Each structure stands twice: as structure tokens, then as C-alpha cells.
Fold each of these.
Amino acid sequence: MADNTPVALEVALLAVYSLAILLLIMVAYTILHRFLSLWQEGYAARRRARLEEAVAMLVAEETDPVRFLRQLPRADYTYAEELLLEYAAKFGPEVRSRLAPVFDATGALQRNRRRTRSRKWWRRADGARRFGLMGDANVSRFLRPLLRDGNVEVRMAAGRSLLELGATDWIDDLVQTLADPNLLSTLRIADVILGAGAQAVPSLVDFISANPGARGVTTALEILGDMRAVAASPVIAGPLQTSSSADVRAAACRALGRLETPDAVELLVSALDDEAWEVRAQALRALGRIGDPTAAPAVFRLLAGENPWVIFNAATALAAMGPDVHLQLEEAYRRRLATEAGAPSMLTRVLGEVLSPYLPEGQVTVV
Amino acid sequence: MPKVLIVEDDPQIARIVQIKLTNNGFTVIHAPDGGAGLAAVREHRPDLVLLDVMMPVMDGYQVLRSLRAEPEFAKLPVIMLTAKGQERDILHGFKDGATDYVVKPFSPAEVVARVQRALR
């Protein structure tokens, strides 16, 4: 035991020394790394500051791109790219198209192409976003394949960039991705398609006509409604009459309501007999938006139903159908109040709630 | 020489607009936030104000309301510069007394044209 003590002590000391050296190396590395990062940041800030005025002059059309490039050192290409992208994001397409030859000449397009081929989705999305700011319509050929990317962020960035570049031949590709099973992805893509405005209507119409039962039709119908694409109303009406899905039929009703065209009234009135309460409720909401009093008799009939949403939407629709129908509704409410002793029925409570903003104070006794 | 005050917290936007306006014969003053903008209006008495909406200290609507509350600046032309393009934001600006509205991202040449029109 006594012979072993010095060896054990030596081992322990060696371990302590090793740990101390390791700790020292780690501290030295951390300090060096921090120092290098700060130096790099400072260096980049100095280079950017030196370029800032020249870039501002280029953006403000005080220098032409050829002269700017002649004065730009090769070592500053990447700094210039970042600065130009910042400016491009803040100014309109005229400025971007002016900057396009500079992005091309400094190799920014090629660097960005590599970015869009990265295995990391956030780099691909960033690459797609950058292409949109570079103002060169020729890059749309690099963006189009990204519309089929597996990641929704990349698809959205590519769609938005194509929109920024003024290209239109890509909308079909993006509309096809509405069939994505992920509803959140579909809704985000819908936002990009909405941004395309009227130019997306033919692609949406083709999508609905070709796949009336397909996934994504609901969203396509909602988009057409949000765009107020009145010319597409026959296509929106199709799924309401033929689709076996209550979700699709309800979406068609919502879309027809947003169009606010009296031509849809007849079809929406026929949808009041739909077997699914969701469809009846949405048809009522749409009729309320259109506000055509000729639909009132059919809508009054649904007040006698049992589904609270259908009753509520029927009462709301009637309240929006002009003064004559409104008076009839008030009359019905007063009659019910007079005849119902004790606890009021659901219909009476709904009528009271719907009419309360219009009734003189003191009339609303039950909610 | 007409005097234009730019109240804008983004130095890059302010610089570009400043270059364009200076080259078109305007004297330009820049204030980096709403509070400084209000002080600059009182001190320099510009002929027109280009006013950003989203800014630190005071937003553009607050600056505009403060200006309109002072009788000497009640008719001072104010063009709002903002990233918000929604109808209600534009209406909000007009309700508070804005003369015109430019939505970002904008063309610097368009801003110059609007300034010239407002001062005509």
C-alpha cells in the first residue's frame, strides 16, 4: 500500500495537470475566437461603410452600373451584394432592374444558384428570396423548380420572388401544390397565389375544373372568392352542385357569397336544402352578404330548424336583406316575445341577439 | 429653394431620397425619429414633410396629429412614407390630415414627383 501511494499521487497530479492544460486551451480558444469574430465584424463594417456611399449613388442613379463596377474591388463583391440586396428590398422594381447587371457582373447570381441547391431548406429559401430582389427576369428559370420543393417555405419564397420579377408563367405550378395534404402549407401557398391577383384566376379555374374532387379544391374556391373573381362564378358553382364533399360545397357557398353577385342567389337558395348543415349555414351567410330580399321567404323557412348555427345565420341574413325584411323579422321577434312565457326558446334568443343593435333601448329583454 | 424635411428612421431610405431631392433643387433636412422630426419642423419650418409611419419615439400618425394641432402647421403639406399598404392605414393617414401617401417599396423618382406636385 505504501509503495503504491507515490504512483497514485503521480496519476492524480497528472490528471489535474491535464485538466488544467485542457481548460487553458479552451479559454485561449474562446478568447481567440471572440477576438477573431470581433475583428471580422469590424472589418466587414469598415468595408461596408466604405461602400455605402458608392452604392447609394448607384441606387439614386448618380452613377451608372459600369462606372460603379469599374471602381469596385473584387474583394468587395460579397459586401456589395449584401448592401445592394438591402437597398433592393426597400425600393421598387425600377431600382431593382437597374441593379440587375451589377448582381450579374459580381457573380452574385452564380453564388445564389449554389445557395438554392443547398441541402438546408433555409438556405434554399434565402436563395429564392434573394433572386426576387435581384431584379433579373432571367432567373425565373432557376426559381421555377423551387416551386416543387419539398419545403413550403422554399415554395413560398420562390412564388413571391417570381411575383416580384413580374413573371406569370409559374402560377400553374404553384396552384398544383394546393393539393399538398398539409393544410397549413396549403393556406400559406394560397396567400402567395392571392398576391398574384387576377392573373392567377385561369390557373385556379383549370385546377378546379380538372380535379373537382381533389384535395386543394376547397382552398382554390376560397381564393377565387377572396379575389372576387366574378367571371369564375360558373366554375365555383360547379362543385356546389356536383361535389360529394360537404367541405367543398360549403367552400363554394362562401366563395359565391364573397363575389356578392345576385346571379348566385338562385343557386344559393337551392343549397338551403342541402343535407349538410355546414352547407346550409354557409349558403345563408352568402345570401346575407348578397342581401337580395327575393331570397327572404326561403331563408325565413330555415328559422324553424334545429341547428343553432343555421338559425343564427338565417336570422343574420334576413337582418341584412333591407328594411322590409328587417321589419318582418322584428315583427316575428315581438310576436314570439309576447307568446312565450317564462324561458324564451332558442330561436327567440337568437332573434333578440341579431336584432339587438337595431331595436330601441328597452326592447331587448332576453339574451 | 424649397425646404423638405425627411422624418425617416432608415438611413438608407433617407439617404437615397435626400440625394434625389437635392439633385432636383430642394434643400433637405433629415430627422431620424418622430420626436426629432417634430422639433425639426418647429426649428427649420420646412415647406413639406416626408413622414415615415413606423418610427421609434413617436410614430408618423402621432407626429402628424401634433402638427395639425398647431395652427401654423395645420396646412403644411405632409406626405406619408410607409410599408403599410392596407386601405385602412391609408385612410387613417388621410383622416389625420396627410396630403399624400407613398407605399414602400417605392421608386425614388416617384417620391420626387409627388413632392413637386404637392408643392405646386
Amino acid sequence: MSEVVLNGASVSAAEAASRSTVLRRLRLTDLIFHGLTRTAALLVLALLSGVIIALVIGAAPAMGTFGFSFLFDQSWNPVTEKFGALAPIYGTLVTSAIAMLIAVPVGLMVAFFLTELCPMVLRRPIGIAIELLAGIPSIIYGIWGLFVFAPFLQRYIQPFLIDAFSGVPILSTLFEGPPYGIGMLTAGLILAIMVLPFVTSISRDVFEAVPPVLKEAAYGVGCTTWEVFRYVVLPFTRVGVIGGFMLGLGRALGETMAVTFVIGNAHHVSASLFAPGTTISASIANEFTEAVGDLYTSSLIALGLILFFITFCVLAMARYMLMRIQKRVG
Amino acid sequence: MNTEALAATANSPRYAGRRRRNTIAKVLALAATIFGLGWLVLILGILVYKGIGGLSLSVFTEMTPPPGSAGGLLNAIAGSLIMTVLAVLIGTPIGILAGTYLAEYGRHDRLSSVVRFINDILLSAPSIVIGLFIYEIMVAPMGHFSGWAGAVALAVIVIPVVVRTTEDMLTLVPDTLREAAASIGLPRAHMIFSIAYRAAKAGIVTGVLLAVARISGETAPLLFTALNNQFWSVNMNAPMPSLPVVIFQFALSPYEEWQKLAWTGALLITVTVLALSIVARSLTSARKSS
């Protein structure tokens, strides 16, 4: 730009030169800032790839030694250096399943209450309370579970369940063995309490996005509140609700501290829910700093890689579903 | 309208059944709400009950004790504060810059949609995996656990939270403001600094506060990065104590004094996290109402 024209009149060469340096400087800062923000955005990508690469490298010795049988072997013996991931994977899946079995129906009903039934005055306070509770660190749930919930289960609930189901074929295997208090069931129940606020607040957000016209039309033809929820709100938000569950499931699968306190850290697969078990995250948390030998450490990192893979799939699916519902609503 | 016909419908067994189902569902919903909130009230209640007894000045002035004697949590609190501050200092600029790219420069390009997706995954990735990652890239090469490793692990958790809120808040800034700036010839970087950031300031601060709330209770990523330290230590190259890790260690110990301190520490963390989230929330709601 050799000449700057202002108000139709040309300006002196010196002024034009100073203007173009200012302009150049402005453009330069813009370029630099653009580059900086782009680098930061790329860094987020690099972080995720870094996590994957670091875990794969760390897990390589264990994967190389045990191969695919690592996934299906339940032995875990630091002395003979024989490791298998079956028990932690089983524990992770079982505790998460227990958590979701309880948290999903309860969370849905709470969200139903909050969006359709709750008096307007209470909606905001209860909603805020639930969101605040979702932010409580998991170690709090863990310490509570260890000192309060597990003894309570041991004294009152577990003996009752053992007596009640001792003659029933399948249930007697599930509720078998001495009531330790700690174990898979306790861990699953604590996870359920932890996941509940997540499931509730996501379902509530999704339900609130339903266009009022749809609900009004349903009420107009004489539907009851429950029918509006069951046949209008739920079908309309199905994808989003499932996305919300998957997000909750992602939390439950990867949760460490709430589980580590009460799972018992025993590396064996047991059909009884009362038996102590372990999850992937609990094994890593309990053993990583004490692990001696490269193979031991590497096996634990391999566990971490498996956990990351499972949660990645679950979370990616959750995000995909939530994205679809967002597109549909707005 | 024929009132007799209406009355007949109202009394028909089919309608009665629908009404009954409706009532049952409503009662179940109410019960679920009471059940859900009940647990959470119970947890907080017991936490206050167990934690408040141990709360005294010595908690803030004395070091973590050896087994069987009294003491405080001073070194753990200090370690947590140092690592949290450093994590925020490292994570926030990266998070804000990346969020700015997503909202301002590359709102619709392919890179942004990929970064958005990956960021959402990082946002809910298991924190223990982040700990393993930092162990692999920092602790193992350096040969020892360190406060730096702990701070970086926490920073990795801060970044996605800040990216997300920054992008959301910048997207809320009306485009007319941007267009007005562009029409007087302001380059984008200047528009972002003097208009977009200013308009979204409260929201971005909220994001940072939420990130602090999130990391102040994180235990898993610190277990094998910062490890723990029973003594006073501000050396970032040495293992560093932190409140959550001390709670973990003390709660699982058989010593009563340690368990008591663990409850007190748990109460401290919960109060901090709740206070931070409430402040963050009031910041955004004040902005919305104004």
C-alpha cells in the first residue's frame, strides 16, 4: 500500500508511511495472535495423542510378554510376575453396571419431577443443589463409603440379603459369602450415588429443551402428565438421554477414589457381589507406587490403556449422541 | 358440551386406569427425588458432623503428624495451594487461547470441530489415566516424583474445562459487536482483546473458578506424580504433599488421629469446592441479569 486516501484527499507521503507502519504492525499482531491460538488448539489435540502414545509405550512390555491372553487371564502375581487383566476389567464392568442400574431410573424420575411436577419456586434451588453435588470430589464419597456406608451395609443390609435369598438359585450366588461390608456391591452403590447428579442434571437439561408446543398439544388432547412425559418428552429426547447415560457411564468406569476405598482390592473374579474385588482404576491407585519391576509397572499401565480405550469409546458415543440432539433442537 | 357424556368418560375404567398410572408415576418421581437428595444430604451431614470436631487452629499451623500423635494439615494445605496455583497458571492461558481459536478464528473450520470433540473427551477422561500419562512423560524420565509433575497433571485437567467455558462464553458475545469493530477497521486480535474478552470476562473467570474447584479435590492424578511428603516442603523438584492424597493415606490407616484428620481435611476440601462453585455461579448469573 503506497498511498493512503482519506476523505477523497490524498495525504502527504510521510503521513502515509507512518500509517502503513501502523497498519503493518496491527496486521502482524493479528497474525501472531492467530498463530498462538491455533497452536493452543493444536496442543489440545497433542495432549490426547500424547496420552495415547505414552500409554501404548508404557504398556508395550506387558503386552509383548502376555499378548492377548492379558485380557482373559485373572492371575495377578507380582512374585512370579504373572499378570492378567480379567479381574479388574470384570470389577470395573460389574460395579459400573450396578451403578447405572440404580442411577438411571432414579435419575430419570428425578428429572421428570424437576421438569414437570416440581413447584416453580423449588425448581431452581433443587436444580442448583444437584449441580453443586455433582461437583463434590469423589474422595469425599470414598471416605464416607469406607467409614459410614460399608459398616452400615455389613451390619444391616448384607445379612438380610444373604438370609432372604439363600434358597433362590441365581440370587443366592450373587449374595453369597460373609458380609465384609466392603466389596463389589458397596462400590457399585457408592458409584450410583455419585453418578446420580450427573444423570439427573443432563436429563433435566435435555427435557427442558423439548419445545413447549409439543407438550401443550399432548395436554390439549387430554394426556395425563405421565403420558406426556412417557409418549412425548421421552421419545423426543431419547438420543440425548442415552448420551447423558453414556456420559454418566464414562464417569463410573473411570472413577477412582470413590471405589478404591471400598472395593477391597482382591484380584479374583467372583460371582458373589459381596466378595471383595478390584477395578482397573483401583488397582492402579493401590499398587502403582508400590510396583517393583518393569513388568509390574507396565502391566498397570496396560490396565490404564484398557480403561482409556473403554471410556474413550463410551464418551465418544455419548458426545455423538448429545451432538445429534443439539442439532435437532437448535 | 354434554355433561353426562363427560361424566361417563371421567368414570370409565380406562380413564381411571390412566389416572392411576399417572398418580403412581408422580408418587414414584417424588420418592426418587427425596431418595436421591436424601443420600446427598446424608453424606454432607455426616461429613460436617465428623469433620467439625477436628477443626481447630492446629490444623492450619501444624504439620501432618507421625502415627499416634496429634498434628495438623499445614504442609498438605500448602502443597495443594502451590500445585493448584501453578496448574492454573499453566493451564489457563493455554485453555483461553484454544477456546479463543474455537470461538473466534476457526468457528466453522474442520480443525475446530475435531478439537471440540477431543476436548469433550478430555473433559471427562478418567483422571487416573492423566496421572499415568504424566508419570510416563515426567516422573519416569526425571527419575523421581515431584511437585512439578503434580502441577502439570492438574494443568492437564484444567485445560479442557477452560477451553470449554471460554468458547461457550465467547460464542455468547453478539456478532454485531464484532461487526462494529470490523467496520472501523480493527484487526481481529484487537477486536478480541478489547471487545470480545471484555464482554465475556465474567464467564471466562467462572470457567477458571470451576477448573480450580475441579482440581482441588483431585486425588488420582497426584498419587504417582507429586506422591506425598510428611514434612514441610516447597521444593517443586521433590515429592510434595497435597490435601487429597493425605486424606487418602490417613483414612485408610488404622490410627484414630489420622482418621480424624482425614475427616477434617475432607470437610475443608468440600467447603472450598462448594464455595468456589457458588461464587462461579453467582458471577455468571449476575452477568445474565444485568
Amino acid sequence: MIYLKDIQKSFNQQPVLKGINLKIGKGEVVTILGPSGSGKTTLLRCLNFLEKPDEGIVQVGDIQVKSKKATKREILSLRRQSAMVFQHYNLFAHKTVLENVMEGLIVTKKYKKAEAKRESELLLEKVGLGDKHNYFPSQLSGGQQQRVGIARALALNPEVILFDEPTSALDPELVGEVLSVIKAIAQEGITMVIVTHEMSFAKEVSDRVLFMDGGVIVEEGSPLEIFNAPKEERTRQFLNRISRDFSVSFLEERAN
Amino acid sequence: MTIDILFIWTAFKEIIKALPITLILTILPLLAGFIIGLAVALIRIYKVKFLCRVANGYVSFFRGTPIIMHIMLIYFGFPLLIDQISTKFDLGIQSNSIPIILFVLTALSLSAGAYLSEIFRSGIISVSNGQMEAAYSVGMNSFQAMTRIVLPQAIAQSIPNFTNIFIGFLHTSSIAFIVSQKEMTGAANIVASTNLKFLESFIAAGLIYWGLTIIAEGLSFLIEKKATAYNRGGVQ
């Protein structure tokens, strides 16, 4: 389904990914955790070549691309295997909510306009935005924009949906509505790779958790294994720090 | 010296007959410049091999020299070139049979292309990179991403700049009269010198230019309001 072999990537001679090997099966929900700068977003972006790996093989669905010899045509067909939900939503600013969802269907899936419209309306209904068809992204809250982003990704019916910190730019009170939409689609058996900082969400939604640090996958396993019995020291440190932050902020909230 | 207010109106009626030429000298170069400018901007943004250098040189020269110079160079230079080519290949074209307005239009188009290319370039750069990435993520190729996602936003955001250039070129078209192309300023000059009423004639011409500029600004405001409605936020 997804197969990565020896993915390497540097920015200005600074290695960010140091040989990543990974296999993800159909229907699997994989979350990637790790401190900032660990390369998790870069890894996700290598999956659809928004970042071109320096070295290694990327395969999504039936399309396999060797990074070094990747042609434009190969990259295009690799990208058409996946869809992405961005941290900053990146909705097409000049198009309405409905047009945002229709765009991929019309341009890359060659749907007729009426068909694309029907399909998009269903999806917007599903993410709870059936009443916002003619709004522009600038008129929506962050949570609503991100749900449009999810509908846009779902519309393509891709082999895999890539989530790049989908809730990191949201106000805390809007995180919940987005996470519940993601949870709902996770249960439908769509393959998903999620980079996130939401630990409890990762625990709940994933089949497998990867912990990355310093450009390598340090540890992987079921959420139970990673959160309750991490084998590696680095994973333990990271989780401790996160849970301490969490309990401190929780106490602060109580105190206020 | 007294000012003959009534003559302003007489001059006005005479000068406005040259309005079509002024509009032709403004609009045609801008249309040609629109195409040249877009092409040059894309070549420079994508750093197309070899062409990029040509484009850089073109923009540098035409923005780095006065437009009056372009008109002079083309008005005096092109006939030489055309005559030489014509005799060499026996084409039978004579440069003095080519209407002057064609030289002026060529010069103004080349200038407009250089100025507009920078407006396109800044417009395209101002569209956030995330828009391009989102387009790629839904499976568009670079051409589709550019034409469907980036350019519409870049052009909508550049409308005030386009208006600026339009107004600039409306006024610049007046220098065509130095090569005896009779547009509004040329017409004003003729009315002035035949009647020896310079002040009145140029006041009349000034009023026409000003009026045209106000109309252009009004139109631009309406178009901008419509084209960038998506960016305004708030609730419907």
C-alpha cells in the first residue's frame, strides 16, 4: 500500500531524514509523533513529493517512484494516489466552499460539473457544513475551514489521506470538532497517515504509532505499547515531557 | 494677459476629437503588454534556461530608460532595419509607407510589457505557497495549478497596480506627439498655436485627461471590489 525505502532528505546539507523505511497496509491509521524538528512533517511531505527526497523509493498504491530519477509525470501520478490536509488549511482562497471540494473532482478526476457538485454536497453534509456551500474560506472559522479541507481530501477518494498537524493552528475550543470528523472517517477504513501533537487523539484513533526523533523512526508499535510501555529512552522522555505539560496546563486551567 | 474662459470649451470640442487615438495608444499597448508581461513574469519566476536572461535584460532595459527614448529609438531605428531587410530580400516594403502610429504602438507595447511583468511577478509571488501545494495535493500539474489557482488570485490582487499603469500610460501616450502622431496633447498643441491661446487649450486637454482618470479609477474600484470579494472575510 505505502512503501518507503531508505528515504533521505537534507536541507542545506543538514540531514532531516536519515534513511526511513516504512510499510503501511491498506486501511491502517498511522500517527507520527515526535518533537519539533524530528522530520515528521518532512516525511509526510515526501509521500506526495511536496518535498522531493534526495534518496530512496516512495510507493503509494501502485505507483512507485525512485526519488533520484523521478519524472514530472511520475510525480503527478504519485500525487494522484493521495490527498493532503494541511496545518494551515490551504483552501483555495478565491473559490467557495463548494468549489473547493469540486475542484479536484473536475480537474483531476474529470467529473462532469453536476456530478462533482452532487458528490461535493454529500461530503460537505458529512463534515457538517451542508449550510456553508457559498461561503468563501475567509468567512469561516478555522475549524470549519479545516473540515472543508478534509472534505476536499475525501472527495478525491485517494488511496491514503495525509494529515499534516491538522489541529495545530486551531483555537483549543475548535480542535474537538475537527478531531471528531477525522475519527469518523478513520472508522470507515480509509488509510491515513497523521502527524499530530494531540496525544489522546493519537492513542484513540491509531492502529500504529511511530515515534520519530532526529530524522529516524526511533520506535513504533500499537498505541498501547508506545504510550504505556515505551521501550526507548527517548520515547519515554518525550512522552513524560508532554504529559507533564498537559497536567500543568490542566492544573492552571483549574486554578483559573 | 487675460484668460478666455469660453475658448476652453471651443478647444475642448476640438481636442476631444483626438480622444480615439489617445485611447488606442493607451489600450492596445496595455493589451499587448499584458501578454508580454505575463510571459516574461512566468519565465523569470520559473527561471527558464536562456530565456530568463533575455527576459531579465528586457525588463532592465525598458524600465531603466525613459519611454520617450523607446519611441525615438523605434521611430528612427526600425525604418533603417526594415529598409535594409527589405532591399536584401527584395520584399518591396518601404518604411515611409508604414503609418507612424505602428512605431509608437510598438514602443509603448514593449514598455508596457516590462512594467506589467513586474506587476505580474509581484502578484504571483504574493500568493502564498500553500495555495500551490494544495493544488499539487489534489493532483493538478503545474500549468493547472498556475492557471486555475495562482493566477486568478494574483491578478485580482494586482488590480490597483494595473489601474496605476493604465493611468500612467494614458498620460504617457501624450509623448507620441513628438513624432507627430496627433493624439490629444498633439491636438491641444495645434489648437493652441493656431489660435495663440496656449493656456486655454492645455487647460482643456488637462480636464479631459483628468476626467478619463477619474472614470478609470471608478471602474477599477468597482472591479476590484467584485474580484477580491473572496478576501474580505466576515459573514454573508
Amino acid sequence: MTLQLICFYAFAAVMVASALAVVTVRNTVHAVLFLVLTFFTAAATWILAEAEFLGIALIVVYVGAVMVLFLFVVMMLDIKPESMREGFIRFLPVGVVVAAVMLVEMLGLIGVKAMAAKQMPADPAVADGVAQNTAWLGKALYTQFLLPFEIAALILTVALVAAVALTHRKRTGVKTQKPGEQVRVMREDRIRIVKMAAETPTNPTTGESA
Amino acid sequence: MSNDLILVAWTLFKILAIAVPLILAVAMYVYWERKVIGWMHVRNGPNQVGPLGLLQAFADVFKLLFKEITVPDQAGKFLFYLAPVAALAPAFAAWAVIPFDQGMALANVNAGLLYLLAMTSLGVYGIILAGWASNSKYAFLGAMRAAAQVVSYEISMGMALVSVLILVGSLNMSDIVNAQAGSKGLFDWFWLPLLPMFVIYFVSGVAETNRAPFDVAEGESEIVAGFHVEYSGSAFAIFFLAEYANMILISFLSSVLFLGGWLSPFQGWGLGFLSVGGWWWLFVKAFVMAFLFLWFRATFPRYRYDQIMRLGWKVFIPIAIAWIFATGLMAYYGVVTVGSEVRP
């Protein structure tokens, strides 16, 4: 048993355990944190398989950005675990049916795939004579798969713009600052210098100025 | 098997050789900050403990270590204790890929820059967890502010890294430094072609570390001390350590990415020992960048929250996107010399 294999089983065990904890723990924030741990160990197993770009990208995108926002939202919500648990018995049959159907489908898929199983080809990065996994991935994405890659990028951009357009509301009566106008303000716009003759104290008895 | 053991022992030794000086550097950095801000306020700063007050930071550390850690009533105990560690671990782990000199890095990995991006994005968990586990309104507000701010500025920071990547064509940190070598001295470094990105990177770095003028996460005047208001003793000391380790990290990173790392600013000018590159140049550059953090703190008033968001989203990100295109054109037409040859 090599060190690599020991590491893999350790990571895999942590991953499965934390994935189970995501759906079993009572506290929602704890559940999100277990999901973070699941992503992190998944990234570790990918790096173990020498797919370092995918592994670190998983951490950057999911752990570093998506889950932070997730945590943000879950912390803001006022979730009562008791009310979440109320309909458990009532919806149990539906859940069991859905779970059973999914299990059968997945087993069927694995069975079909296993019948047509082939030996995994050698690591394409090594086969192409490129030592770096990241460099190979970049080359493949920007040459062989350029069109699908660009279409995916376009779809994501459209989704982004659509999300902003759907949630953006024009509200009336909102006071906002316009930094451009603030910067353009000149001294003359704000103050007016009035020239007037200096007043001199007057003598109260004679009424003459001193 | 014995070879493996030697490798593990050697790696542990190298980790200690980075971590211990880093902790000492944090102590001296805190002292230096108090001194510099003192001078800028026309007062002396710490000058009682030890010669010139040099032992002040150590006195503070021992005071913190001997204080009691109080846990708020109804706080999430486990997460409350986990949060400082979650803040500290990424701040130290990121140092693994920093190249101090040619071939002088703990791990000279090929995906070094990506690893750095991953590690710096993990630091926010410590802050969020601290705010939530404290079960306090002030701490929670601080955590929310910190999270929104860090997530926003990470985008422009990542784009600044992308522009460096376009010029270098490698994620390896040593390659990035070597690509800035040349005969024109400091004008061969990336700060010149990527000047807007350099500014964006460093300012975003100040925002990412929640330092003044972006320190609304602490905001003493409104939310007392933000996410770590409930922490005391050594738990607070760990947050402090993480914050300053992150500041030193950002100083080193901007030096490596934009200021030529260990390369001499007089490289190729034939000035004898001054033209020779070495780790001392990296430390000088990082010291200057670290000084900027203190200068900012003593100079600028705190940004308002909406101003922070505006700067991040409406100013930095559009400039970064535009400059990525400009960088692509520069790389395509071979305007920038990378290493000794012009890239096609």
C-alpha cells in the first residue's frame, strides 16, 4: 500500500463523512461548513490524482467564493430547525420513492458503463509531452475545444446579465450620491464672497464713529 | 522509507525556517507601525520597554498569552475556537510558494499563483466564523462587512494576477520573477507595463487585509472592534498575528509579481555588487510596500461602506478588464520583453 493510496482513502473517508454530515446535522451553518469541508477534500483527491489545476480551481471558485456567499445568506436567514423537521414523516414516502428511482438509475448507468469498460488511456498531458497539467489543459481548451469553451463563456455571461436584470429594481425616491458631480464641484458653486464696507464702532453718546 | 523520513524532516525544517522569522517579523512590524504612526502624529511611540522600546511587542504578546479567554454565553464553542485558527492557517500556508531567491522556495510548484489565489480567498472564513460564533450583533455586523468587502476586492485582485499571467505564460512564481529579468534595470519589471494593475493589486490587497482606510470590518467608532470584539487573550493574539502576516504576505506578493522579486533594480547597469540580484532586494522591496500600509493608515480617513463598494465594483473592475485587453495586445505584439527575449 503506497502513501498515495493511504492518502486517497483518508481523503475519501473524510469526504463521505462530511457529505453525510451536510444532510444530517441540525444547525444549517454547520451544514454549510461541512459542505466546505467536502469541497476541500474533493480538491485534495483531485490534486492527489495530479489534476492540480482542477483541484485548486475548485477551492478558488467553490470554497473561496460560492460557499462564502452561501454562508453569508444562511447566516442572515432565521431558520428554525424544528419547523424544518415538521413534515418529515408526511413527505417520507415521496422522498423514498425519489431516492429509490435515482439509485436504480445510477446503478443502471454504472452497469451499462461497466459493460463497455475500456482501459483508461494514459495521462494526455504526459502523452503529449507536456509535463504540466495546467499548460496542457490551457492548450486543449484554447485549440481543440475553443468553440465549446467560448459558447460556455457566453452562456455564463448571459446568465450573469440576466440575473442582474431580473433582480434590479428601479425604485423611486432613493437618494444617491453622484461622485462625478461631487468631484466637479468648484469653489464658486458653494460659497459667495460678499464685499462690504467694514463697520466701525460708534460712540453711543455723540453718534459719531470713533 | 528512510529517504521519505529525511524529506519530511527537511521540509519541516524549511517550514520552521519560514514560520519562525515570520512571527518575529510580525512582532517587529507591530512595533514599527506604532513607531511610524507615532512619528507621523509628532509623538514618540513606544519607547519604554527595552532599548528604544524594541521589546514592546513581546511585552504585549506575553500580556495577551497570560490573559483569560472568555467565551460569550450561548456562543458556538467549537466554531468560536476554530475561527482564529481558520484565519491564521491560510495566512501562513500561502508562504509555501513565495520564492525568496533563485531556487529558494519551500515548494516551487507549477500552479503557484493559483495556489496563492486559493489561500488568500480562504482567509475570510476565519472572520465570518468569528462573527457568527460570537453570538453578538457587533461581531456579526463586522463579519458581514468583511465578507462582502473581501469577496468584492478578490475579483479585481484576481484580474491583476491574470494580467501578470498573460505576460509570463506560467503560473510558477520563480518563472514570474525570471520573466522580469533584463538589462534595463527596474524598467524591465512588470510595474511599468502593468502600472494600473499594480496599483489595483496593492490597493485591493489593503482592502483584503481589512486595513485602513478599508477597515470598516473593525470600525471602532461604530461597531467597537467588529468580528473580534468578543475575543480576548491568546485567541485575539492569533487574529492579530494573522492580520499582520497577511499584510507582510501582500507586501511580498506585490514585490514578486510587479517589482521583480529578488532581482536588483540596477540589473544590467554594471554597478558591481549593486547590480547583483539576491533575497536582500526582495526584503527591501517588501519593507517599502509594508511601510505603505502604515503610511496609508496614518494618512487616510476611513472609507464609507458604499464608497468601498463603489471603488471595488465600479472603478477597479472596469479598469482591470480594460487593462487585461491592453495586456493581451502588448503580449501579442511583443511590446514587453519577457526575460531576455521578446515574446512572439
